[in-house]
Amino acid sequence: MGTGSTKSPAEEGPARVNGETSQQVWCGVGRTTFALKFRLRQPRELERVRRSGRRIQAALLTVWIARGNSLQPRVAIVVGLHGYSSVARNRLKRQLRHIVRTEILPSASEPYDAIVSARSAAYSATFSMLRSSVVRAFAT
């Protein structure tokens, strides 16, 4: 709260740190996000990619890639239960999203739709193993 202000901090708006809002500080400069425009979310879109796309299988994951209908590449991350806890599933999803966001999307030269589906072996893989598997799958 500012001095003499009757508004709560939430009503005052975002706090500023060195001229930037807290949201800008949190995201950081140059940070790429896995925005909604880069995600496949509709079940009919996922089904289309699975039916018409090319399937690439690896020890840690399966990737389906199909020609995209939008102007940018879009990716869906699918992590099955495989008997693991929600903590392990969410950790694996975060790791895969990070790899796609930093390694795959910046180097995309044409629009495509892709599904990255983790296999049960992905839960016990290291981050570098996951990264190399994802990069290899998208390179073929």
Keywords, please?
four-stranded mixed beta sheet, Ribosomal Protein S5, domain 2, alpha+beta, single chain, 5 helices, 140 residues
Description:
With 140 residues, the protein is α+β, with helices and mostly antiparallel strands. It has 2 domains: 1-31, no CATH class; 36-139, Ribosomal Protein S5, domain 2. It contains 5 helices and 6 strands, in the order H-E-E-H-H-E-E-E-H-E-H. The protein has helices spanning 9-12, 22-27, 43-52, 86-104, 127-139, and strands at 16-17, 20-21, 54-57, 61-67, 74-79, 112-118. The strands form 2 sheets. A 4-stranded mixed sheet has the order 3-4-6-5, with helices on both faces. Strands 1-2 form a two-stranded antiparallel sheet. Strand 1 and strand 2 (20-21) form a beta hairpin. The longest helix has 19 residues, at 86-104. The termini are far apart. Residues 7-29 have low confidence and may be disordered.
Describe the strand arrangement of the main beta sheet, using strand numbers.
Answer: 3-4-6-5
CATH architecture of the largest domain: 2-Layer Sandwich
- Reading the helices and strands in chain order gives HEEHHEEEHEH
Oligomeric category:
single chain
Number of strands: 6
Distance between the termini: 55 Å
| Total count of helical runs of at least 4 residues | 5
CATH topology of the largest domain: Ribosomal Protein S5, domain 2
Instruction: Give the tally of structural domains.
Output: 2
CATH class of the largest domain: Alpha Beta
Strand content: 15-25%
Give the overall form.
globular
Please state the average pLDDT score: 82
